């Protein structure tokens, strides 16, 4: 039986289907996974998500499995090595943003006790459930993603514009943007 999925999921791409079926839109409360997704969403800026999804394992290896403490301590030689790593997007600004975002992430953990507590506060601690009939109805950003972006930027985070923040909210289940005809809409 063919399952009805959100229209953005290519039927013939197993990686994309698996991501949609098992990750996208499912609430994430693990700080390290929340950090990983923030970094990957920033890396995606200007590119398609599948480009990053296909390189996710390379990112995990290159960035010490998204250990924020290790990343915050990266020095110039590590950044230069990352710029030569063909398994990731070799954009200097994006790579340097991972280091500054790791530092910001650690500060947020200190201030709020966890990144989870902080980031989920933008949706009142529980997923916002939308009722989109088609993917074309889904906004690129919302007042919540704008507030998140503004606050993250104030804290020194980079590549966290309101559109990136909304994609992040979708990916980590802060919003349920499965269309109503998708088999995962009720989950």
Q: Could you name the key traits of this structure?
A:
187 residues; mainly alpha; Endonuclease III, domain 1; two-stranded parallel sheet; 2% strand
CATH architect. name = Orthogonal Bundle
Estimate the global geometry from the Cα principal axes. globular
**Number of separate helices:** 10
Spatial order of strands in the largest sheet = 1-2
CATH superfamily: Hypothetical protein, domain 2
Structure in a nutshell:
The chain has 187 residues and is mostly helical. Helix content is 51%, strand content 2%. The chain has helices spanning 14-22, 31-43, 49-53, 56-62, 68-72, 76-83, 92-112, 115-120, 143-154, 162-171, and strands at residues 128-129, 175-176.
Please describe what this structure looks like.
The protein has 187 residues and is mainly alpha-helical. The chain has one domain (27-176): Endonuclease III, domain 1, CATH 1.10.340. Helix content is 51%, strand content 2%. It is built from ten helices and two strands; from the N terminus they run H-H-H-H-H-H-H-H-E-H-H-E. The chain has helices at residues 14-22, 31-43, 49-53, 56-62, 68-72, 76-83, 92-112, 115-120, 143-154, 162-171; strands at 128-129, 175-176. A two-stranded parallel sheet has the order 1-2. It starts with 13 loop residues before the first helix and ends in an 11-residue tail after the last strand. 34% of the residues are buried. The mean pLDDT is 96.
């Amino acid at each position: 039986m063919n399952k009805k999925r959100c229209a953005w999921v290519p039927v013939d791409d197993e990686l994309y289907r698996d991501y949609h079926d098992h990750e996208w839109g499912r609430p994430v409360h693990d700080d390290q996974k929340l950090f990983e997704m923030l970094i990957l969403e920033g890396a995606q800026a200007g590119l398609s998500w599948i480009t990053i999804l296909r390189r996710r394992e390379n990112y995990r290896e290159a960035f010490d499995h998204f250990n924020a403490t290790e990343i915050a301590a990266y020095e110039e030689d590590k950044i230069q090595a990352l710029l030569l790593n063909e398994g990731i997007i070799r954009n200097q600004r994006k790579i340097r943003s991972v280091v500054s975002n790791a530092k910001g992430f650690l500060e947020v953990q200190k201030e709020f006790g966890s990144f989870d507590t902080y980031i989920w506060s933008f949706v009142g601690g529980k997923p916002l459930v939308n009722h989109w009939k088609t993917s074309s109805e889904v906004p690129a950003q919302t007042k919540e993603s704008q507030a998140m972006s503004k606050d993250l930027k104030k804290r020194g985070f980079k590549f966290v514009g309101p559109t990136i923040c909304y994609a992040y909210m979708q990916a980590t289940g802060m919003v349920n943007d499965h269309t109503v005809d998708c088999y995962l809409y009720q989950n």
